[in-house]
Amino acid sequence: MGLPMAHRLHLSGFKVLGYDIRPLSEFTQFAKNMLSDPARIAGSKILLSVVRSERQTLDLCFDVQGVFRRDKYPQTLVVSSTISPRFIKYLSTRLPKDVRLIDAPMSGAPVAAEQGTLSFMIGGKKEVVDDLMPMFESLGEQIFYCGGIGAGMTLKVINNYVAAASVVSVRRAFDIARQLNVEIDQLREVMAASSGATWFGDRFDEIAWARQGYDPENTIGILEKDVLSALDAVAELPQFENTPLDSTLLEAVRSLKPYEQ
């Protein structure tokens, strides 16, 4: 997601530099805008983080790259990864006091990032969000201000719990249709016009990872992480208990096989 977001911001007139642990050769035309030394991140005003996990967030901020352990660091950190809301609250206690933290997870595939049609769920101080609104508006069509720190992430992980269930359901429906000799294209047409409509099913051909099988390192693996983040969000609530549905959903995500037309 980070690369198409960077492209979109660049096309919108923002000065954008990128950093990644992957080789610069993987970034094609954007390679000239990539930093090879994480120390140079300190010169940026805003750090927009789109790393995969809580562990990678800690590496970026404090450990391996250690952006916020340096004498100079960005004054604003925008976390657009999908991670636990409880982790966002923890992150806010570790950052230097003068850093403005915003949680702004987004919804939409890389194609939506390229087109500037992402949806953002944002948490943090309203005046900081207002300052950043031109950036969000260049990347997204639907921008929801949800409240204080962690509020955006809370909405996002609940949304992604539902999204993971729809991915599993749509892929299962396609398997059932095949066994019953139903044309998949016809099924999709009916679903899109009926109660079976879903973001995943309606955009199946547009979503680059729609046909993936489960692998901890791919986007289907991210679905597993997102479900776990939603469950972590309520882990300390005594009235909430994990249900068989939670376990079944995780098992179903992990059992997805590559889809072949």
Q: What's the topology here?
A:
Layout: H1 2-11, E1 18-19, E2 34-35, E3 46-49, H2 54-61, E4 76-79, H3 85-94, E5 100-103, E6 106-107, H4 110-115, E7 118-123, H5 126-139, E8 140-147, H6 151-179, H7 184-192, H8 199-202, H9 219-233, H10 244-254
Parallel strand pairs: 1-2, 3-4, 4-5, 7-8
Antiparallel strand pairs: 6-7
Q: What's the total helix number?
A: 10
Strand order of the largest sheet: 3-4-5
Second rung of CATH, namely the architecture of the largest domain: 3-Layer(aba) Sandwich
Uncertain ranges: none
Beta-strand percentage range = 5-15%
List keywords for this structure.
10 helices; globular; 261 residues; alpha/beta; N-(1-d-carboxylethyl)-l-norvaline Dehydrogenase, domain 2; 3-stranded parallel beta sheet; 3-stranded mixed beta sheet; Rossmann fold; single chain
Brief synopsis:
The chain has 261 residues and is α/β, with parallel strands linked by helices. The protein has ten helices and eight strands. The chain folds into two domains: 2-152, NAD(P)-binding Rossmann-like Domain (Rossmann fold), CATH 3.40.50; 161-254, N-(1-d-carboxylethyl)-l-norvaline Dehydrogenase, domain 2 (Orthogonal Bundle).
